[in-house]
Write a structure and sequence with these properties.
Layout: H1 3-14, E1 29-35, E2 40-48, E3 54-55, E4 58-61, H2 66-87, E5 92-99, H3 108-119, E6 125-126, H4 135-142, H5 162-181, E7 190-194, H6 198-209, E8 213-217, H7 221-231, E9 234-235, E10 248-251, H8 260-265, E11 270-271, H9 282-291, E12 295-296, H10 299-302, H11 305-315, H12 319-327, H13 329-343, H14 347-367
Parallel strand pairs: 3-5, 3-6, 4-5, 7-8, 7-10, 8-9, 10-11, 11-12
Antiparallel strand pairs: 1-2, 2-5
This protein binds nicotinamide-adenine-dinucleotide.
């Protein structure tokens, strides 16, 4: 090894390149899955299993670098821990990412191979669909492992969780409106939905039914046309959604759209959407929103409908119970927004505290 090489290696070790990663936050296990034949490159992040097996969807995305894929797996799996904890489910937090283009590179063979990796974890991680995945993919995974949810109804599953997720987001948004405006009626509110995929579309349906003035933005023109023609939503043609005049901003695409750049322009009075990890930096951007008087309905709280739906597959409860639990997101959101206000916390921190308290209580119960 040359001296230079040696020095840079030392430097790397000193910086704790693995456990010292920015997004590494007491994760229990990270699994790298590689299969040359199918081209599968996946990372499964298991953040915490104190409350139960780590359940969380699989995202297929064309990441710029493997580091950003790892970062996503770490951030998303941690988010799942808190989502299940705050929703009162006996589940831990996990998430998987597959590196690649879901439209052109996904094959049944790849899905089956991925299922085998999931199976090798013996139920410690249970998968489901996320961005780039659908119910049919989960059906393929089911061929090789029972540790999968979100499979189709004719195969005994609860089907696509996205409509339930959208219902929960709608409930959380209404709760935030009640808190901010004194009324949860969204009629005539100007609402921008960014990302009209599986969840965004159903959210637009709820909002337009209630008479909200909905504008939709997406990088996929076809989706825009389709959703617009179905529900009469206005298509956004401008260059910067965040700078527009609106009452409510609903991020329903990918994470981190609440950042230094967007917050400085944001004119909404409420942020409530489906996307995971909306705050690029949880404490900093949560605080910036608070200082600007923008009510933020924590993402992991209001987008829990999907996990409630897939949990039903494991517990065997029915549709009415799923809807009741999802509707309860309204009450929990109000509680958290009040708690944050009373204690001078950001809404994100208030939600995290409650979720963490539930995990800590279970951990000490186990110890004793
Ligand atoms: P999806 O892939 O069906 O939809 C995402 C949409 O966002 C697509 O139409 C895509 O074109 C669009 N998009 C991507 N980048 C964009 C950008 N920069 N600007 C505008 N639009 C963009 O995904 P989904 O299942 O609807 O999930 C949406 C979000 O909600 C994700 O962050 C996901 O993790 C989260 N979420 C989903 C569920 C669920 O049940 N599906 C549950 C909880 C959280």
């Amino acid at each position: 090894m040359s001296q230079d090489h040696h020095t840079s290696f030392e430097k790397m070790i000193n910086q704790d390149p693995v456990f010292g990663q920015m997004s590494f936050n007491d994760h229990e296990q990270v699994v790298f899955c590689n299969d040359k034949d199918t081209g599968l490159k996946a990372i499964i992040g298991i953040h915490n299993t104190v409350l139960g097996p780590a359940l969380g969807g699989t995202r297929m995305w064309n990441y710029d670098t493997e580091w950003s894929a790892l970062n996503d797996a770490l951030r998303l799996s941690r988010g799942m821990t808190y989502k299940s904890a705050i929703t009162g489910l006996n589940l831990g937090g996990g998430k998987a990412v597959i590196i690649g283009d879901a439209k052109t590179q996904k094959t049944p063979e790849m899905m089956r191979k991925f299922g085998e990796f999931v199976h090798s974890l013996s139920g410690k991680y249970i998968t489901a669909e996320d961005v780039g995945m659908n119910t049919e993919d989960m059906d393929v995974v089911r061929e090789v492992t029972p540790y999968v949810t979100g499979i189709s109804e004719d195969k005994g599953g609860a089907g696509n969780p996205s409509p339930i997720t959208a219902y929960g987001v709608f409930m959380g948004m209404k709760a935030a409106a009640k808190f901010k405006y004194g009324s949860d009626v969204l009629e005539d509110k100007v609402i921008y939905v960014e990302g009209v995929g599986h969840v965004g579309e159903t959210l637009v349906e709820y909002l337009t039914q209630e008479g909200a003035r909905v504008t939709i933005a997406d990088i996929n023109r076809e989706r825009l046309e389709e959703v617009s023609s179905k529900y009469g939503a206005r298509i956004y043609e401008g260059a910067d959604v965040h700078a527009e005049n609106m009452d409510i901003y609903a991020p329903c695409a990918l994470g981190a759209t609440i950042n230094d750049n967007s917050i400085s322009k944001l004119r909404a009075s409420i942020v409530a959407g489906a996307a995971n990890n909306q705050l690029a930096d949880e404490s900093k951007h949560g605080m910036m929103l608070q200082q600007r008087g923008i009510v933020y309905a924590p993402d992991f709280l209001i987008n829990a409908g999907g996990i409630i739906n897939v949990y039903a597959e494991l517990e065997g409860y029915d549709r009415s119970e799923i809807m009741r639990k999802t509707e309860n997101i309204y009450t929990t959101t109000i509680e958290i927004l009040n708690k944050a206000q009373q204690n001078g916390l950001t809404t994100h921190a208030a939600a995290l505290q409650i979720a963490q308290a539930r995990i800590d209580a279970r951990r000490s119960e186990r110890r004793s």
